[in-house]
Amino acid sequence: MSRPDPLSAVRRPRDPRIDAFRGLALAMIFIDHVPGNPYEAWTLRNWGFSDAAEAFFVMSGVAAGIAYSARFETRQETGLWPAMAPLWSRAWTLYLVQMLLTVATIAIFAAAAAHYAMPELLTKHNLKGIFQTPETVLPALPLLGHQIGYVNILPSYVVLLLAAPFAIMLGLRRPGLLLALSGALWFVAGVTRLNMPNFPGNGGWFLNPFTWQVIFSLGLAIGIRHRRGERLVPQSMPLFALCACFLLFVLAWKEIPAFGKFMNYQMWRLGELGLPYTFVTHSKTYLAVPRLLHILALVYVVSCLPWITRACGARLAEPLRLMGQHGLLVFAIGTVLSMGFQAIMDGHNDAAWLGVMLPPMGLFLLYAAARIAGHLRALKAPRRTAPPAATVPDPVPGGSLVAHAAE
User: Fold this and answer.
1) Which of 237, 261, 289, 336 keeps 20 to 30 A from 191, CA to CA?
2) Tens-digit pLDDT profile for residues 116-140
């Protein structure tokens, strides 16, 4: 007898933390992508070394682990391709969105430069080569060799989704080995400065997929266990206390100038003694040790607090949950809005009120877009009758998250 399809059983309510935290990360990314507004002083990057991008990658890994791993468990009956195809299809969708956002950003700053008579706008955010030497730079755009500032998150996510089927298959059988290999790749890439190349020119991708894969893989492993109703790392009071103390230590490092200066000097001394670059800097590109430890501690502490689950499921958190459920749409619209707001604020650099007004307006538009998308999805969804009382519940935490968690 073949195994029952784990996707066909009755589903539990989805875990509200996944949607709420992904929505919160998207909101923070949007605010941080409109520099010069007063709200950016309250985003995650002000309270620690990591920021909303790390949180988004972890939560996206969790969602992908929940949404796609069940298909790999039944691949012997259904085949491998039906399990892999949704992930690669999603990667293709993200690639197309990346191209659309790239073209939109070029158009926004070109129009702003003409409207405000500010040709210097054509040199911002790595746009200079596009307008000065288009014959060499434009061919690199579809190859992801040339990326525009603030439009450089999705390329790494595309690469990680292409590799995700193999990570999921390993994570289902040997999660410890998956994390060990992922950690080894992160270490080698950080020490040797291994990165995807930028071209034409030098340098590498802003979010290096060889290092950022470590938190995405962690998210995958968490999601695989979460779908089974299990934790990847058991709750432990000593570990919780250690992580909480580390978060407070980092907060002091960030907020107390004298202490921060002292700690940065110690980091410099360790670098002079030969400790690898990725251990003694706060590099975002290589996901340096301080940033990595901070996001790991934050994820563990948050996962251990029951009140956070209740808060994420509360009515007041509904806008964040809805934005998280429609992550790609919200991210894409948020990117276009943030680029447009940047151009407007550059054109009216003496109007401080724009920094106060535009971000809340943008967040409202993002919520409205997510709400419309949710309504349209509900109209398209087939009506389901209530299951018999004796039906065995599905062991899939996250419920309908399986259908669209990786959006």
Assistant:
1) 261
2) 999 999 999 999 999 999 999 999 9
